[in-house]
Amino acid sequence: MTGRTLIVTVLGTGTMGQGIAQVTAAAGHETRMFDAHEGAAKRALDQIAEKLGKLADKGKITQDTRASTLKHLSVGTSASDAALGADLVIEAVPEDMALKAALFAEVVGAASPHAILASNTSSLSITELGRRIGAPERTIGLHFFNPPPVMELLEVVRGMTTSESTIEASLAFARGLGKTPILVRDVPGFATSRLGVILGAEAMRMLETGVASAADIDRGMELGYRHPMGPLKLTDLVGLDVRLAILEHLQREIGDQFRPPAILRQMVRAGRLGKKTGEGFYRWVDGVAQPI
Q1: Given the DSSP bridges, would you call strands 7-11 and 88-91 parallel, antiparallel or unpaired?
Q2: Which of 236, 139, 249, 232 lies closest to 190, judged by CA?
Q3: Secondary structure class of 35 (helix, strand, coil)
């Protein structure tokens, strides 16, 4: 995939799907987006255009870069339409194995016979997904980090039956996006999710036992350990429901060290899911976190 313009399909246009599509289009790949929710892909395209416009106005990108990125973005009328002839299909839908497998089954016949089938999952088994799709040698994990246009890391997850050619092509693709890939085996939570959620869970337990405020816990990690964002603010950004699902999965697969804190379950039940609902461990006003 080095130096070659690809047809890339991104399935799911939430925060991660939008960001992934922006990154691939900015790298010059023809990028098609699709979302099962009516109008969501078109709204995502409009939101990307707005973000790029603001970056251009601030001088962080050129107007030519903005125009080029948008030129490489389009919206499919269906999943199979978006995947027609694609060289690479990346799904960024919720963490549900059955949903991901069904979506890939819908598009695998439309994509190129040699297309790489990539999941942005942060914890589910790539090996199982490849088996369910029926194309295990072409299935791989491409775990982007939020926000994809900014974060340098790309976790490449090899399933037990992922072919070497798929792995090499995926690593080359990641580097072509300007990302730094790390290659990990298909184990629950991979490398980064296991470390990230265990830190986040401990921060939540500290909050619920009154060790310190959310803002001070986060500030301690940001200033003391040079984390760009504290674990509670990061949980708000990722989504409390997403973090809960990952912890539950890892608890089943690995053990009780990943048991979700009670405060996390309570907040999810209350609909306080973080930035996307306007309130989580922080209150979010115009995209800015404010202490509660």
Answers
A1: parallel
A2: 249
A3: coil
Helix orientation angle between 192-208 and 214-224, rounded to the nearest 10 degrees: 140
Question: Is-contact 236 264, C-beta < 8 A?
Answer: no
| Beta carbons of 153 and 206 less than 8 angstroms apart | no
> pTM for the whole thing?
0.87
Handedness of CA 195, 196, 202, 205 (dihedral sign): negative
Q: Give residue 141's pLDDT band: very low, low, confident or very high (50, 70, 90).
A: very high
- The CA distance from 163 to 165, in Å, is 5
Residue 122 near residue 184, CB atoms below 8 Å: no
* 3-state helix vs strand vs coil in the chain, percent to 5: 50, 15, 35
The structural domains of the chain, ordered by start, are: 7-185 (3.40.50.720), 193-281 (1.10.1040.10)
Contact predicate 274/280, CB 8 Å = yes
For residue 285, what are the β-bridge partners?
A: 288
| pLDDT tens profile 32-79 | 999 999 999 999 999 999 999 999 999 999 999 999 999 999 999 999
Residues 192, 212: Cα–Cα separation, whole Å = 26
